[in-house]
Write a structure and sequence with these properties.
Layout: H1 11-14, H2 19-44, E1 52-53, H3 61-69, H4 71-74, E2 77-78, H5 80-95, H6 115-135, H7 137-166
Length: 167
């Protein structure tokens, strides 16, 4: 798959970035991955005996408070492997310089995940991407809305950059 947005990293220099908005987007992205991992773990790691309630696990405080507020989400259980992947994803999300305008990590030319981590996360994304629509439709719609907004932002910035280069 060719990288559609080769100018992706340059956009950070071209955009005015609101830090609060950026943190909100990162927090929402963490929630989405958490839900995807929880759905995957629930359906694929049925025989895992040492699953722990997510309300008993350590997470960043904004995620922990969200888990405790949302009873349906607090009922999820995670195995150790999925919990580790969730924490890795949270670290990558927090450090992501493109979070204000990014679409999907696999479209980004700045590949920050190690190959073995990518191989563990892809099945989660592929499987849960379909399931999350039915289990958490409000989060899905918000995610899709953000995705479309960011795709348009990237296209517009690239279009403006081309006009500037031509004129």
């Amino acid at each position: 798959m060719s990288k559609q947005y080769k100018q992706f990293p340059n956009l950070r220099k071209m955009l005015v970035i609101n830090k609060e908005e950026e943190q909100e987007k990162k927090k929402f992205e963490k929630k989405i991955f958490f839900l995807m991992a929880a759905i995957y773990c629930e359906d694929h790691h049925l025989t895992e005996k040492n699953k722990i309630s997510v309300s008993d696990l350590e997470f960043p405080k904004e995620i922990k408070s969200w888990i405790l507020e949302e009873k349906r989400i607090a009922n999820y259980l995670l195995c150790a492997d999925c919990y580790e992947l969730v924490n890795k994803a949270f670290q990558h999300t927090q450090r992501c310089p493109h979070s204000t305008y990014k679409t999907f990590c696999h479209e980004c030319p700045t590949m920050c995940y190690r190959k073995e981590d990518q191989e563990k996360m892809l099945p989660i994304m592929r499987y849960s991407g379909k399931k999350i629509m039915w289990k958490h439709p409000m989060y899905t719609w918000r995610f899709i809305k953000n995705l479309l907004k960011n795709k348009n932002k990237i296209k517009n910035m690239i279009r403006e950059e081309k006009r500037g280069a031509e004129g």
